[in-house]
Design brief:
By secondary structure, the protein is an alpha+beta fold. The chain has a domain of 82 residues. Helices cover 45% and strands 21% of the residues. The chain contains 3 helices and 6 strands; from the N terminus they run αααββββββ. The strands form 2 sheets. It has a 3-stranded antiparallel sheet, covered by helices on one side. β5 and β6 form a beta hairpin. The longest helix has 31 residues. The termini are far apart.
């Protein structure tokens, strides 16, 4: 007991990590733990674009099916609202389309004669 009291009274500093070293280690651990989650952010953005494109594709498909039957309208104008707000295409009687290349948000989107939407390079 006396020996331990003498050691405490010598004012010797035990070696320990400084606050700066602990913060640096926590920062490195935080970066390492978040690295695997970075692709999820880009994948989430890509999913939003694909969902908007699927909504526009379903609008085109619905218009094609509607025009394939007996209908009084010669042309149905389909707005590509969530994907391309300023663009629209025409679906003609019989369910066919004129192939078009549209620019949506700086990306080229082609719409084929059967209504298939695909990304294209401008």
């Amino acid at each position: 007991m006396i020996i331990s009291a003498k050691c405490l009274n010598k004012k010797q500093h035990t070696s320990a990590f400084s606050l700066l070293e602990i913060l640096v280690v926590l920062l490195i651990i935080g970066i390492i733990l978040t690295i695997p989650r970075w692709p999820l952010v880009s994948q989430n953005l890509l999913n939003r674009v694909n969902n908007e494109m699927q909504i526009s594709q379903s609008k085109i498909d619905t218009a094609i099916i509607f025009q394939s039957g007996i209908n009084a309208k010669r042309v149905i104008k389909v707005d590509l609202e969530p994907f391309c707000s300023a663009q629209s295409i025409n679906v003609f009687l019989g369910g066919w389309l004129k192939p078009q290349l549209l620019e949506c948000g700086g990306k080229g989107v082609s719409v084929g004669a059967l209504g298939k939407m695909e990304f294209e390079s401008l």
